[in-house]
Amino acid sequence: MEKRNTFSMDEIYNNIGSLFQDLTSYNNSIAEEFKTLKKSEYLVQLSEPDIRKYSDKPVLEVMEKRRSIREFKDKSLAQDMLSAVLWSVQGITDTKGQYFFRSAPSAGALYPVSTIAAVFNVDGLNQGIASYDEKKNQLHYFSDGYSRKFFAEAFMNQPVVNNIPVLLLFFADLKKYIWRYRQRAYRYIYLDVEHMTQNCALACTAMGLACVTVGAFYDDQVNFLCGCDGVDKLVTYAACVGYRANDAS
């Protein structure tokens, strides 16, 4: 949609969510080098998530200690720690028949927001970009190779991206919500992603990891890297996960 300053009342009423999304986007051109990322599809089964292996801290203590950490140590992340963080974000906690209960709530239990992991330095995993299947605890790679420099540019060269072992990106599939909630769907996707990112931050704190959520990025570049069209599927938020720079371990 072309960016304008004035709209008719009909346009606002029928498109208020998409207008908000469009008018608040940061856009930049897609550099040709972005297109050099190798496309490759394969599945990786992650180790079973077990957050209790790393922490038995009471939730109130974890909430008290949570901080946004912006300086990270260049250190690899254990695969089982990544598995535990991904489960905490929106993992399956129980099943009843065909219904799956998760660690985060969602309006109408429709769960339109999913997680993508940009893997830079995780033990036993290839560098690349993969979507997370919470029902099977699998990573579905769709892009192979070193992508940090591309995400650094897409995130406006913020230093926070420099040393992290993994960047989690949360993208919404609006078709899962629009049919039911119409333009109000745009409100709900951001409520959903906030539940997920708070889970992420608290899990990282409990496990002794550092985490900071980031909303400043060039939408079109990040959507391109994540295979989203920016209309029906769009990246809404991100979380940097790793070890704080002054971690003595």
Distance between the termini: 49 Å
Total strands? 10
Helix count equals 7
Helix content: 25-40%
Largest beta-sheet details: 8 strands, antiparallel
Q: Which descriptor suits the 3D outline?
A: globular
How does this model look, in words?
The chain has 249 residues and is α+β, with helices and mostly antiparallel strands. It has a single domain (40-244), classed as NADH Oxidase (3-Layer(aba) Sandwich). 31% of the residues lie in helices and 26% in strands. The protein has helices spanning 9-23, 59-65, 79-90, 148-154, 175-181, 185-206, 219-225; strands at 38-45, 72-73, 92-96, 99-102, 113-119, 128-133, 138-144, 166-173, 210-214, 233-244. The strands form two sheets. Strands 1, 2, 5, 6, 7, 8, 9 and 10 form an eight-stranded antiparallel sheet that branches. It has a two-stranded antiparallel sheet with strand order 3-4. The mean pLDDT is 92.
